[in-house]
Each structure stands twice: as structure tokens, then as C-alpha cells.
Design goal:
The complex is a heterodimer.
Chain A: H1 7-10, H2 26-36, H3 40-72, H4 79-128, H5 131-136, H6 139-181, H7 183-230, H8 232-237, H9 241-293, H10 299-341, E1 364-372, E2 378-387, E3 392-396, H11 403-410, E4 418-423, E5 426-427, H12 433-439, E6 440-443, E7 452-453, H13 454-459, H14 467-477, H15 480-484, E8 493-494, H16 503-517, E9 521-525, H17 533-546, E10 551-555, H18 559-562, E11 567-572, E12 575-580, H19 582-588, H20 591-599, H21 604-621
Parallel strand pairs in A: 3-10, 3-11, 6-9, 9-10
Antiparallel strand pairs in A: 1-2, 1-4, 4-5, 7-8, 11-12
Chain B: H1 6-48, H2 54-103, H3 106-111, H4 114-155, H5 160-207, H6 209-214, H7 218-271, H8 276-318, E1 339-347, E2 354-363, E3 368-373, H9 379-386, E4 397-399, E5 402-403, H10 409-415, E6 416-419, H11 430-434, H12 443-452, H13 456-460, H14 479-493, E7 497-501, H15 509-522, E8 527-531, E9 543-548, E10 551-556, H16 558-563, H17 567-577
Parallel strand pairs in B: 3-8, 3-9, 6-7, 7-8
Antiparallel strand pairs in B: 1-2, 1-4, 4-5, 9-10
Chain lengths: 623, 582
């Protein structure tokens, strides 16, 4: 989709109005300068090229003036000088051609290199953020920062900076040349300059508003169509085609109207600008004509003036066009530097304790842990939980009971407010985050697939893990036959969308990841919630393999997933309210039993029968 | 060919008068514009002859003002007309496309992603608009300007051969544009593509950030992302190499023309073959021609591009909807007639295997049917056929004595309420989402439906209650909340038949039990079809069918099915006994 629709065209303009640049831009521009610094030489060379190119371009009317005044008007009958002039002219245009080519290339080289390094650094900076950041900031806006915002920075270099340099210099050159030709005439002409500039900038700022309106309406239209296309089946099944068409018509009409407004402003501006140009020529003709009449200037000068005054307009127009780009670039720049200013909330301790990952046993202790998210409401109160190496713990409880928070604390995605979380007796805050994350393997409800081969998806593109290791892992979790059936076997390309794998099969891939990365502790966070019973069974078998020799925590809605655990803890409102194995908990007749009954469809008789049937099975399972 | 031109020709035929007026204004404007160097030329001649007075200077300046104003105003009016036509085309075509989209069926959508369809609405329509607005405008302008310039030059007694010699380098401009234009376009598409690839990569990386961080492979992912960044840079530089060449070449050709005018014209002026005024006019004319010639080249490129777009749009509009109402469509009384599936076998259009084989069912009004089966067993296919999202074979699905295919779409769609698994909601208010079937419905009805679906409390916890906006600019609902909202939407319709397609899968067990209880109560005398993975959701059904590989392998009530050895009993065992871990 990114390819099909120019995202910038629809999006970036829309929220421009919302983020007016009220923050100090200075720091951001200073930061940008740091990125630009290594390219000083390129910029310098480019500057030289611009000067040569502009000079070559602007001297051309001057040459014609020389031809008219010194030869044609002066009655110089030798064609030789004329041809010399033509020769110089040719030389100048070749110079102009070569140097403007060079200048464009140099500019792009510098701009692109800067933007590329900003992009890489930005991406690196974002991935360094702690998990709470990603919970808070929607990934859509991060994508916008990395792609659109940096792209408008690119615009800053390739169009704003270039235009300011080139068009600004052109203007200066023209004025200088005009002074050189005739001071008085130039002074008269300079009266025009503010009028032209005022006209240009006034219109531009008005146009920007109409333009933004059009963009906002366009992005609403696009969003509407995209959503309706995605939900077309619902629309058809509910027979709402007509109603949706009416809504579409409204948005379409709105966009059309803002377009018409844009066109009106546009035409008005272009025309008034053009007329101003023609008026200036008339003005110069009148002024210069009288001057020629009074013999104060030769005719050739008048000719050159007329040409220059026309050339006056282009650079002013160009620069005023850059105004919008400059503004959106400034907004983007600020946004990017805001991210650069964000410090990861969870940071490695100053003195980290390095542990040998392979020697970790996997003992987990939650000692008097208290925790709440930003809003201050405590999610976990004074929780104590001790897990022995190799033990399998099932965690149940309704939504909001604090199950996932517990996991987040163990992984140190968030920091505890009170108490300690320890692995093998070491507080997780003392471990380097990288080590901690390698220690703990997490399998989530929605296994994520990267676009790449199955091999790469299992080893997460880490080339130090061999193909053989991956294949062995897949065999262990029982994914081998499934992969063998696929078109290219282990080299079949997967992606987040349309991998052709079912939810259960995707989950198997994430189990294989665990095998190759060898974490000491394994966490399953609702890993079976979206699966049908058949796939769930597949996963259960894989779990048996993967959990071997690892401390395992399993969170589940469905009791069937955790019934066989060594110990089940039942959480409610951030505390452990019941603890024990399945049978003990049922016997106790508390909240767990209630949950169990619900999952059985509140048929106590049947439930009782089921318990009896399972007991024998379980004993031979987890063991 | 005739049919393919349909969209554009029919539009232009309808709006020809605006076109005509726009073009006439532009032509008139250009005639004035072409007069402008002539005035300066005359001015020069008179000056040289010494016949210039203060009055004459004023006179010439005033003429110049007139020319300027007339050109500006007339050209502006023309331009406005033509741009109006273009935007109106956009408006009109998008409207038509949307209407067409609402008629296309599932089969089409399963083959064409949203991105592709959006690109019809956005890119193709825009391309065509550009070619018919800008293209027509600029061609008309440029042609007129060039013709009038040449006529003016000839009228000024500048010898034809001289004109031809001077403008000879300019002739190359359109050629250069047409030659280089496409490769610039190709390379800029490559830039766009690599930008898209980077965005996609960022999307992927941020989507999977939990996995990346959890396995501490940030460095590897940074490198992967860095590669997409470098590719953009390479492509950009490749593009600028050709585009800056192009940008420098056009003025260079213009300059060459001027050099010839200068040397050759100057020579002739020296020789007295032309006047100095003509020489001045000539150099101005040459300058004037550079832009229109470039424009013509651009137009040729635009038109080439838009030809492909017009073709694509016409092809799309020519697609016949799969599901169409028969001209003699009738209505059925859904609340009283028996819904029957008669030996239904079905194969998806592009699939070699039958998705359903010999399915037969009778569903009396007021009864509840449960359907269980693995993923891919044909449950959803059966529902799609019942809803006529796909066309079932003739006579295979009937309501009373009428084939569902013979019903009006309104009657059919009004007869069945549907709750999908994914809980798709629109980015409007919660109220509009629940009252999707009838958006003017009273709030009390909406509230009632929300209560039945056990979503009322969640909704009330939002600051704007039922007026809370969903989607990007509003709140995001969890999977379970989405499902329950979609359930409320289906219940709100209060249709004679309600289909729940695994609609409570993301809801926890306690809530599920409560929802099933309410559904049973609310739909006491109405027909309900429940598809579920979890047996707990459908065990109360009057009949349960078990689907496997497109066939009904078991049928009966919960109790009778439990007595049999088979999938149902096995599923029940897995779900209730947790044999997995064991």
C-alpha cells in the first residue's frame, strides 16, 4: 500500500496545522547541523558550482546588450566581434549546463547521505526505547516519523536549501548586474521588489491553508474508502450500500469543494503574479524609454533590463514556494528531535552484573512486589511468588487481574515500584537488559512473522545460528512435516500478511525460536487463545518439548492449557488469591472452581466426570 | 476499443462546452501574449529611427499594460474552466467507482487487496485528471502560443528561413522530453518503491518490536532496516543523475537557439536584411518558445501514462458484479418459512477441491443450529453461501419454496443478521456502529442491544459513551470488546435469522456464558445459527452439526453426540479435560 499511494500526498500535510512550530527550533536545527557537518566539503563544492552556473546563466542577457549597444547600434559593421560574442555565449551556456548538473548531483549526494544517517540513527534510537514506550506510542506514528518526517527533511535539503541558495544568489546577481548597467533604473526597479515579494508571500500563506484543507479532506476520503473496502462484506450483508454511498458522496463533495477553492486561489495567484510581471515590463519600458530618449542610457541597457526584470520573478516565486516546505520540514525536524530527546525509561544499571547465561538455573523470586502504571492505580500489591528452576506455573485470572503486568516486570519492560524481582537471586535491575532478554523467552498470543524465509524467521536473521540448528528446532516442535509440505520448504518466504500459515502453525514457528535462542525461562502469554482445539493440541505437544528443562510460566484464559501445570496461581485484582495444582484448587471450591465450571458450560455433573477422566492422563504427561 | 474509451469519452461529451469555452479563453490569451515581443520590437525600431517621443513611450507602455492585463485575465478564466473540468472528472469518477465497489462481490475482494483498489481511486483517477486538465490546457496553450509566435514573426517580416534556423535547436526539446521523461519516471518510481520498502520495513520492525527486543536482536534488525535506507539513497542518486541532466539540457537548448538568433540575426541586422527591432523581437520570441515546447513534451508523457490508467479504470468498471438481483426478484417471509439446504456442494471458483459436499439441512423457524468443525472444515463457506456472499448452486438453498437467489437483495439481507468473527467496525461512533443497519434508530434501542451483548458497561466507561469515536482518531477497542460491539450490531437488527460466526471467541469464559444466556432468551422464537470452536457456546442448540473436510460427519443434540465416538466427543474431551498438557 505504501507503494500504491503516495503517503506523503495524503497524510503529512493534514496534521501540519495542528503542530504549529511553537517549540524552539533552534536545538533541532543545531542537531541537524551536526549531521550536516561531515559533508562540509560537498556543500562547499556545491556552492562553487551554483555560483558558476548562475553567473553563466545571467551573463547571457548582458552579452546581448553588448551586442546591441556596442555593435548593432554603434554601427560596427564587422561580423567578427559578433561571432566572438556568440562564441562567449556558447561557452557560458556550456558552463551553465555542466555546473548546474554538478550542483544538483552534489546537493543530492549531501542531502541523501545526511537523511540516510538520520534515518538509521532514529531507527536505532527508537528500538532502544523500553517497552513502555511502545505501549504508549502507536506504531503508526513511529512509522510516520521514520518515513515521512525524514522524507520532509530530505525535501528541506533538496528543495529548500537548494532554492534559497540558488534563487537567493540569482536575485543578488541580477540586482548587482542591474546596478552595473544603470544605478538609477535599478533603484526604480527595486521599488517593485517588495511588492512582488509581498504578493508572493501573502498568497502563499493563504494558499497553504486552502492546500491543507484539501489534503485533510483527501486523507479523510482515502481513509473512508480504504475502510469501506475492507469492510465491504459487512456493508453488503447489512445492505447498507446506499447509506455508505451517501456518506462517500458527502466526503467526495467536500474534497471537490476544497479543490475548487484551491484552484481559485492558484489561478488568481499565478495570474496576478504574471500580470505583475507584465506591468513591471511596461513600467521599465516607460521609465527606460524616457531615459533612452533623454540619452541617459543606451538602448541595449534597456533591453537587458527588460530581460532581467522578467527573470526577477522566477526566483522570488521559487523561494515563496519553498515556504510551505520549510514549515513542514521544521515541524518534522522538531518531531524527529523530540524522539532523539526521549531517554529510554528502563536503563541498564551503572554497574551491571554480568552473568553467564548458560549457567543460569532459572529460579524466579517476586519479593514484595508493588506496581502500577502511570495513572497511579496500583495493579499489583505486595506480591510474593517463588518459582523453582524447571517448574511449570500456570497463571489464571480475569482480564485486569495483573497477569501480564507480572510478566512485564519479570522482563523488566516496566520497573517495580517496591520490592524485588530476582532471577537466581540477582535483581533483574542489575542485569544488562540484553542478557535479561536473552534469559527469558516470551511466546505471545499473536506470533509475529517477519518478511523472510522460515529459516530467518526462526533464527531472527541471526546468521550465527546455522540452518541445521533451525531445522533441528523445527523437528523438535513438530513443525518439520508442516514445513516440508510448503512450496519451498524451509526457504518459503513468510510475511506478517498472507503467510499462508494458520495461527497454530505460526505459533509453532515462535516455539522453534525458543529452541534456537535457548532462554532459561519461558513465558507463554495467552499463546493458545486464538487457536481452535486441534491446533491447540499441536501447541500443547510442542510446549511439552520446549518447557523441558526450563522454568515455564503459562498465562491462559482457557483452563485446558494450564491444568497440567505443577502449580497454578489464581490472580485477582493484583494479588494471588489461590495457589496449588488443579485438583487441590478444585477441591478448595474457590474462584478457580467457579472459572472451571464456566468453561465447562456450568454443567456440574459433566465437570465432575471430566475431572475423573483427566487425572490419570495428567500423571503420565507433565511428569 | 470503443468500450474502453467509455469513461473518458462519455465524460468529455457531457462537458464539451466547458472545455470549448476554456480553450477559447486560453487561445485568446495567447494571442495577446504573442503580441508582446512585437510591441517591443516596434518600440525599438521607432527608437532607432529617432521617431520616438515621450507620448510614444507612454503609448507603448500602455499597450504593454493592456497586453499584460488581457493575457492575465483571459488566461486565468480559461485555466479555471479547464481545471474545473478536471476536478469534476475526479469527483464524478470516484463517485462511480465507489458505487461500483459496493456491488462487487467477495470473490473480487479476495483476489484484490485494498491497496490495489485504493490505487484505482487515487492514482489512476488523478493521472487521468492531470492529462485531461493539464494536458488539454497545456497542449492548447503551447500550440496556440507557438503558432501565434511563428505567425507574428512572419508578419514582422522576419524571413522564414531565419526563423527556422533559429528555432531548430528548440525542435529537439519535445523529443528530449519524450526520450528522457519515461526513464526519469521509471527511476522516480524506483525511488517511490524503495521508500515504500523502507516504510514497510519500519512497519514490520515496529510491529514486531516485542519479538525483537525479547530476543535481543536489535542490532540485526537495525542492519536490516539500514539496508532499505541505503537503497533509497542509491535510487535517489540514480534519479538525480538523469533528472538534473534533463533540467540542465532544456535551458541549454534554449540558449543554443538564442546564440543562433544572436549570431545569425545579428549578422542579418548588420547586413540590413532585418531591422534592429526585428532582431530584438526575434530573441524575445525564441525565449518565449522554450516553455511551451517543454510543456508539449510533458503532455505527451502524461497522456501516455494516463492511457494505461484509463484502460485500467474502464476494465474495472466493466467487471460485472457476481451477486445481482434478478429482474423478477421476489420477497420471502423469513420469520415463517423453513430455511433449507438441499444437497449443497460447492467449489470456490479458483480451487480444485470442493469446499462443501452434499450438505443438507432443515431449519424450522425459532430453532437454533450449532455448527462445529476445525479451521477449514467449511463452516464459514456454508455461512457465506447462506448470506449469498457467494452464489450457491441453483435450488441448493431455499427459504420456503423460494430459492435464495430469486429474492430481492433487500429481502435477503434484511432476513439475516450476521456477526463476523473478526468484529470489523467502522471508524464512526459506537452508536453508528451498533445501529449500522438503521442508523436513525433511537438510542434506547442501541443501548438495549449493547446490554444484550454485554458491552454496555464498557461503552459507558468511555468519556463520550455511545458517541465515542472508534478508530485512528478515537479509542481502540480490545478484541473482545470489538466482538461484543459487533454482536450488538447483529442483535440490533433483530432479524428472523441471526448467524454468529465464532463471535465470542475472544471473550472470556464468564462473559461468554452470560452472552449465550441472553441470546437464548432474546431469540426465543427466532432462528439462530451459532458457529463456535468452543462447545460451551453451542451445546444448547436444537441441532448440532459437525463439519469435517466439507461434509457433515455428525449431527444431533449435544447429548446424543456425546454418546457417539467421533469428532464432537473428542473436541469435548480436549476442551474440558485438557488432554494437551497431559
Amino acid at each position: 500500500m505504501a507503494k500504491a499511494i503516495d503517503i506523503r500526498q495524503t497524510d503529512s500535510g493534514a496534521d501540519l496545522a495542528a503542530h504549529s512550530n511553537n517549540r524552539p527550533n533552534k536545538a533541532a536545527y543545531k542537531g541537524l547541523y551536526q549531521f550536516a557537518k561531515p559533508h562540509r566539503k560537498t556543500f562547499l563544492a556545491m556552492f562553487g558550482c551554483i555560483i558558476v552556473a548562475i553567473a553563466a546563466d545571467l551573463l547571457q542577457p548582458y552579452l546581448v546588450k553588448v551586442a546591441i549597444d556596442d555593435h548593432l547600434m554603434a554601427g560596427d559593421r564587422s561580423a567578427k566581434t559578433l561571432f566572438i560574442i556568440a562564441g562567449i555565449y556558447l561557452l557560458l551556456s556550456v558552463l551553465g549546463f555542466v555546473f548546474s548538473y554538478l550542483q544538483n548531483n552534489l546537493m543530492q549526494l549531501a542531502g541523501q547521505s545526511i537523511v540516510a544517517s538520520i534515518r538509521k540513527k532514529l531507527f536505532r534510537h527508537i528500538t532502544r526505547q523500553s517497552m513502555s514506550y511502545f505501549d504508549r506510542v502507536p506504531s503508526g506514528s513511529l512509522i510516520t516519523h521514520v518515513s515521512s518526517d525524514t522524507e520532509s527533511l530530505n525535501q528541506f535539503f533538496t528543495s529548500v536549501l537548494l532554492s534559497v541558495l540558488r534563487d537567493g544568489l540569482t536575485l543578488l546577481f541580477i540586482i548587482a548586474l542591474m546596478f552595473q548597467l544603470d544605478v538609477q533604473m535599478t533603484l526604480y526597479c527595486l521599488v517593485l521588489l517588495p511588492i512582488i515579494a509581498l504578493n508572493a508571500f501573502a498568497f502563499r500563506s493563504y494558499m497553504r491553508r486552502t492546500y491543507q484543507m484539501a489534503r485533510t479532506n483527501l486523507s479523510r476520503l482515502v481513509a473512508f474508502v480504504a475502510e469501506n473496502l475492507a469492510g465491504m462484506r459487512i456493508i453488503q450483508v447489512f445492505h447498507q450500500e446506499r447509506e455508505q454511498q451517501t456518506q462517500f458522496d458527502e466526503k467526495n463533495q467536500l474534497y471537490f469543494r476544497s479543490n475548487m477553492r484551491e484552484i481559485r486561489t492558484n489561478v488568481l495567484f499565478n495570474r496576478s503574479f504574471e500580470m505583475l510581471g507584465n506591468l513591471s515590463v511596461a513600467f521599465v519600458t516607460w521609465l527606460g524609454g524616457n531615459a533612452v530618449l533623454g540619452e541617459s542610457i543606451p538602448f541595449g541597457v534597456l533591453f537587458a533590463f527588460i530581460t532581467y526584470i522578467r527573470q526577477f520573478f522566477q526566483p522570488i516565486n521559487n523561494i515563496s514556494q519553498q515556504w510551505n516546505t520549510l514549515q513542514s520540514a521544521t515541524v518534522s525536524l522538531n518531531r524527529i528531535w523530540n524522539i532523539f530527546d526521549t531517554v529510554p525509561e528502563v536503563q541498564d544499571a551503572e554497574k551491571v552484573r554480568n552473568v553467564d547465561v548458560s549457567a543460569v538455573k532459572g529460579k524466579i523470586d517476586f519479593d514484595g512486589v508493588k506496581f502500577g502504571y502511570n495513572d497511579g492505580i496500583p495493579v499489583i500489591h505486595k506480591l510474593d511468588l517463588h518459582v523453582q528452576p524447571g517448574e511449570m506455573i500456570g497463571i489464571v485470572g480475569t482480564t485486569g487481574a495483573g497477569k501480564s503486568s507480572l510478566i512485564s516486570l519479570l522482563c523488566r519492560f516496566y520497573e517495580v515500584q517496591e520490592g524485588h524481582v530476582r532471577i537466581d537471586g540477582t535483581d533483574v535491575r542489575e542485569l544488562p537488559q540484553e542478557t535479561l532478554h536473552r534469559l527469558i523467552g516470551l511466546v505471545q498470543q499473536e506470533p509475529y512473522l517477519y518478511s523472510g524465509s522460515i529459516i530467518d524467521n526462526v533464527r531472527l536473521f541471526d546468521e550465527t545460528i546455522t540452518r541445521e540448528q533451525v531445522i533441528e528446532a523445527c523437528k523438535l516442535v513438530g513443525a518439520d512435516t508442516l514445513i516440508g509440505r510448503m512450496k519451498d520448504g524451509y526457504d518459503t518466504r513468510l510475511s506478517e500478511r498472507g503467510s499462508g500459515l494458520s495461527a497454530g502453525e505460526r505459533q509453532l514457528i515462535s516455539f522453534a525460536r525458543i529452541i534456537v535462542f535457548k532462554p532459561k525461562i519461558l513465558i507463554l502469554d495467552e499463546a493458545t487463545a486464538n487457536l481452535d482445539s486441534h491446533s491447540e493440541q499441536l501447541i500443547q505437544e510442542a510446549l511439552n518439548v520446549v518447557s523441558k528443562g526450563r522454568t515455564t510460566l503459562v498465562i491462559a484464559h482457557r483452563l485446558s492449557t494450564i491444568m497440567g501445570a505443577d502449580r497454578i496461581i489464581v490472580m485477582r485484582n493484583g494479588a494471588i488469591i489461590e495457589e496449588g495444582n488443579h485438583r487441590e484448587l478444585l477441591r478448595r471450591g474457590g474462584y478457580y472452581e467457579e472459572l472451571y465450571k464456566h468453561s465447562q458450560g456450568s454443567n456440574p455433573q459433566l465437570a465432575a466426570g471430566a475431572v475423573g477422566g483427566r487425572a490419570s492422563k495428567k500423571s503420565c504427561g507433565v511428569g | 476499443m470503443e468500450g474502453q474509451r467509455g469513461l473518458l469519452t462519455s465524460y468529455i461529451r457531457a462537458k464539451w462546452y466547458i472545455y470549448a469555452s476554456g480553450i477559447s479563453f486560453s487561445i485568446a490569451a495567447n494571442l495577446f501574449q504573442a503580441y508582446y515581443p512585437k510591441v517591443l520590437g516596434n518600440f525599438t525600431d521607432q527608437l532607432q529611427l529617432g521617431g520616438l517621443t515621450k507620448d510614444a513611450v507612454l503609448h507603448y507602455s500602455l499597450i504593454l499594460i493592456w497586453v499584460g492585463v488581457a493575457y492575465g485575465v483571459l488566461g486565468g478564466i480559461g485555466q479555471f474552466h479547464i481545471m474545473y473540468v478536471g476536478r469534476k472528472f475526479e469527483w464524478f469518477t470516484r463517485r462511480r467507482l465507489f458505487g461500483h465497489f459496493t456491488k462487487l462481490g467477495e470473490q473480487y475482494y479476495s483476489k484484490n487487496g485494498v491497496g490495489k483498489l485504493l490505487s484505482y481511486v487515487m492514482n489512476d483517477v488523478t493521472t487521468v485528471r492531470e492529462s485531461i486538465a493539464m494536458g488539454v490546457n497545456q497542449t492548447a496553450n503551447a500550440t496556440m502560443l507557438i503558432i501565434s509566435v511563428i505567425v507574428m514573426m512572419i508578419l514582422s517580416n522576419i524571413p522564414v528561413y531565419q526563423i527556422l534556423v533559429c528555432i531548430s535547436p528548440l525542435i529537439f526539446i519535445p523529443w528530449v522530453v519524450v526520450r528522457i521523461g519515461p526513464s526519469i519516471r521509471k527511476r522516480s518510481l524506483e525511488v517511490q518503491e524503495s521508500l515504500g520498502a523502507m516504510t514497510e520495513s519500519a512497519e514490520e520492525q515496529f510491529g514486531g518490536i516485542r519479538v525483537t527486543k525479547k530476543f535481543a536482536v536489535e542490532d540485526i534488525m537495525n542492519e536490516r532496516f539500514g539496508r532499505t535506507v541505503d537503497r533509497i539513497k542509491d535510487n535517489q542518486l540514480k534519479l538525480v543523475r538523469i533528472s538534473s541532466y534533463f533540467q540542465a539540457l532544456i535551458p541549454f537548448l534554449g540558449a543554443l537557439s538564442l546564440i543562433i538568433a544572436l549570431a545569425f540575426g545579428g549578422y542579418l541586422a548588420l547586413a540590413g536584411a532585418i531591422t534592429l527591432g526585428n532582431f530584438v523581437a526575434l530573441t524575445l520570441y525564441v525565449r518565449m518558445m522554450v516553455n511551451p515546447l517543454q510543456a508539449i513534451g510533458n503532455v505527451i508523457n502524461t497522456i501516455q501514462r494516463s492511457r494505461a490508467s484509463v484502460q485500467r479504470l474502464n476494465d474495472l468498471l466493466a467487471k460485472r458484479p457476481e451477486i445481482e438481483e434478478e429482474p423478477s426478484a421476489v420477497e420471502a417471509d423469513w420469520s415463517r418459512e423453513v430455511l433449507a439446504v438441499n444437497d449443497l456442494s460447492f467449489t470456490y471458483p479458483d480451487s480444485p477441491e470442493e469446499a462443501l459436499q452434499h450438505i443438507s439441512l432443515r431449519l424450522e423457524p425459532g430453532k437454533t443450529l450449532g455448527i462445529v468443525g476445525k479451521t477449514g472444515s467449511g463452516k464459514t463457506t456454508l455461512i457465506k453461501l447462506l448470506l449469498r456472499v457467494y452464489n450457491p448452486p441453483a435450488g441448493s438453498i431455499t427459504i420456503g419454496d423460494k430459492d435464495v437467489r430469486s429474492l430481492t437483495l433487500e429481502n435477503l439481507r434484511g432476513g439475516i443478521g450476521y456477526v463476523p468473527q473478526d468484529g470489523f467496525l467502522f471508524s464512526s461512533t459506537i452508536r453508528d456502529n451498533i445501529a449500522f443497519y438503521k442508523r436513525s434508530a433511537e438510542l434506547s434501542l442501541v443501548e438495549k442491544a449493547a446490554k444484550h451483548a454485554k458491552i454496555h458497561d464498557s461503552i459507558m466507561s468511555f468519556p463520550d459513551g455511545f458517541e465515542t469515536k472508534l478508530g485512528e482518531r478515537g479509542v481502540t477497542l480490545s478484541g473482545g470488546q470489538r466482538q461484543r460491539t459487533a454482536l450488538a450490531r447483529g442483535m440490533m437488527m433483530d432479524a428472523p435469522i441471526l448467524i454468529l460466526d465464532d463471535s465470542v471467541s475472544a471473550v472470556d469464559a464468564v462473559t461468554e456464558t452470560a452472552i449465550i444466556k441472553t441470546i437464548r432468551k432474546q431469540r426465543r422464537n427466532k432462528t439462530t445459527i451459532i458457529i463456535a470452536h468452543r462447545i460451551s457456546a453451542l451445546k444448547h442448540a436444537d441441532e448440532i452439526i459437525v463439519l469435517d473436510k466439507g461434509r457433515i460427519v455428525q449431527r444431533g443434540t449435544h447429548h446424543s453426540l456425546l454418546q457417539q465416538d467421533g469428532i464432537y466427543a473428542m473436541l469435548h474431551a480436549i476442551q474440558e479435560e485438557g488432554s494437551g498438557v497431559g
